[in-house]
Design a protein that fits this description.
about 325 residues; D-Maltodextrin-Binding Protein, domain 2; 9 helices; Solute-binding protein family 3/N-terminal domain-containing protein; Solute-binding_3/MltF_N
Length: about 325
């Protein structure tokens, strides 16, 4: 009897406990669902927050700015124009005694950009990231300028090959001529016949093997690839000559003036033209940079500021700057 009653009571209690468990399960499921929704909303809000500017000085415009890459804008709303500049180009670009970049090109950038109301920033990079070449191959656009690391490259001259890739602003420096240079005591090199000779060139510069190949008056002007040696900067040319790695180098006077003066190398043969124009700024063909720069350049030529920059001896210890006439 007591056992039966205990069994009956136990059955009733179990049934009641099961109903309570179902209710609790439903509440638990509802709670989990609510927490899931809250978590999703939190993720969405976090993603939106990450996509917003956080007070930095530069933001990125939407694609389709018309300049070939995402354009950067300062907090004031002005478009930022970045200009590549090097450090191994005589009075145009060099590193001073304290390790800072200096040169005529920096002064010109400031003057032109101020006149054009452009917010310009300089970016140091290797010259080969503006224009590049490989021994025996056609020149090609450098990754930095093509990929939009910066908007323009300073101090480049138009050549046939370069105009296939980039656009050029009005020239501010006169074109220079190229020559062969050899060791000062060399008496065997013949600039009229370079058959079998190993010649050094600066990678990506206008004075390249394609320019030599166009010189029909020079026997052997089309060099075998094995006889074409490239270096990345002008300062590497002198050691190539002095250590006998090449028979001669082909470059402009601006890169050899000091070595000639010091009696290390000498010019061999006459002047050779490799350029279509003078020193200028180079930019992508889809960029509006050139038009804006040319307008600023026109203004500083008209108001005399360009002449003042050219007449200054501020950078004379590093060489000369042969400017184009202002023709005011």
């Amino acid at each position: 009897m007591n056992g039966a009653e205990g069994a009956t009571g136990s059955t009733v209690n179990l049934a009641g406990g099961n109903n309570g468990g179902q209710v609790n399960s439903r509440l638990l499921l509802i709670l989990i669902a609510v927490l899931g929704v809250v978590a999703i909303i939190g993720l969405i809000l976090a993603a939106v927050a990450l996509g917003r500017p956080t007070g930095t000085s530069v933001t990125v415009q939407p694609a389709g700015s018309g300049d070939g890459s995402a354009a950067k804008v300062s907090q004031s709303g002005k478009r930022i124009w970045s200009i590549e500049i090097g450090h191994d180009y005589g009075a145009f670009e060099y590193i001073d005694d304290e390790g800072y970049l200096q040169g005529f090109n920096f002064d010109l950038i400031k003057a032109v950009c101020d006149a054009a109301d452009m917010d310009c920033r300089t970016v140091w990079d290797k010259y080969s990231n503006c224009m590049n070449s490989e021994a025996g191959e056609h020149s090609m656009g450098g990754q930095g300028l093509l990929d939009g690391w910066y908007d323009a490259c300073m101090g480049w001259v138009p050549t046939i090959g370069r105009t296939h890739v980039f656009s050029f602003a009005q020239s501010y420096g006169k074109p220079t001529m190229a020559q062969f240079y050899v060791k000062n005591d060399d008496v065997t090199f013949n600039p009229s016949d370079i058959t079998g000779k190993k010649i050094g060139f600066i990678d990506g510069w206008a004075y390249d093997e394609k320019c030599v190949a166009k010189q029909k008056s020079i026997t052997g002007s089309t060099l075998d690839r094995a006889n074409i040696v490239h270096v990345s900067s002008p300062t590497e040319l002198i050691p190539m000559i002095t250590n006998g790695k090449v028979d001669a180098v082909f470059t402009g006077e601006e890169n050899m003036k000091t070595a000639v003066k010091d009696g290390i190398v000498k010019k061999s043969g006459g002047d050779i033209s490799c350029m279509l124009g003078g020193v200028a700024v180079m930019a992508r063909k889809d960029s509006s940079f050139i038009a804006l720069w040319n307008e600023g350049f026109r203004k500083i030529k008209a108001n005399g500021e360009f002449d003042k920059l050219c007449d200054s001896d501020k950078h004379s210890s590093k060489g000369t700057v042969d400017c184009v006439p202002s023709m005011k």
